[in-house]
Structures are given as C-alpha cells and as structure tokens.
Amino acid sequence: MRAYELEKEIWSEVDFNLMGWHDASIWSMVSDAKQYEYLLDLDYIFKWVHPEENETYFKFWVAPVTMVFENAFDVKIDIESQQGLIEVADLYMENPELTPNGKFTSHTYRFECQEGEISLKATGFKMYVRQKPKLIQGQSFELQERGGVNFGRAWNAL
User: Fold this and answer.
1) Which domain holds residue 125?
2) Which residues are 47's β-sheet partners?
3) What is the mean pLDDT of each run of 10 residues along the chain (158 residues)?
4) Which of the 8 DSSP states describes residue 135?
5) Domain count, the chain
6) Quick check: 46 and 62 in contact, CB under 8 A?
C-alpha cells in the first residue's frame, strides 16, 4: 500500500459511526473558554495494515489531528499514567439531550482510555486533519516527528 487516500480533511459528529479512536494517542488538551471549545491534539489512526507475508507486525496510517468539541462544558478527567501517556481504547457519544435554549442537542463524549477516562458534554465536534496520513510501524509519532504539540486547524500537508 503506497498511499492512503484521505476521504476528507475535516470530520465531524456526523461521521462518528465511520470513525474509530482505538489506540489513538492524546498528546495534549486545552480549553478555550471564550469560544466554548475543548481541544485535543492527537495522533489518529486512519487504517490498520495487516502484516504481509514474512512480516510479524501491523503497520498504521496515522496523522496528527486537532479535535475541537463545540459548546463544550462539564469536562471531567480521571487519568492516572506512569509516564503521562494517554492512549484511547474507545470514544462514546452518549446521552443526547436538548440544550437549555432548546435549539441544540448535546451529547456526552466519553473517552475510555487505558489510563482512565475523559468525558465532556458538547453539541458536536470537528476533527481537523493537519497532515497527510503516513504509514508507520507504531501507532503514534515521536514528538518531533509530528511537529510538537499543536492545536492548529489548517491542513499542512508534508
């Protein structure tokens, strides 16, 4: 497999059932209270590649992404990590309910991680792919390899 054909550069809650966060690495989180946003910088695995003949290990098509939760509130973090690493087991979109003004539906987004749990309520999310996915041996990049921690939303294909 020489290249990964990225379907689109921006994903959202509409695509939730097509997406999977298993083994994604969370590098950083930040709240932008003025914009009512909660942002995550993570390495998203777009595709797992089975080992070919005479190979033992999987390879992965991975890209750094910024996940922006919109109208975010009620953030809860219960993480215990020996080295500060956070690896997602799964993301759940649960408990739909109308916002107080009755104009939007919010969900609880619950990241079940190997190290604990992160949950928040939001009316939706956008996931901005910042670079073209690369085929790598591991499930995440090294810090320098991914360009450090970044909450950018622009496509910066390499």
Assistant:
1) 8-134
2) 61
3) 84 96 96 96 93 86 96 95 92 94 94 96 97 91 92 78
4) E
5) 1
6) yes
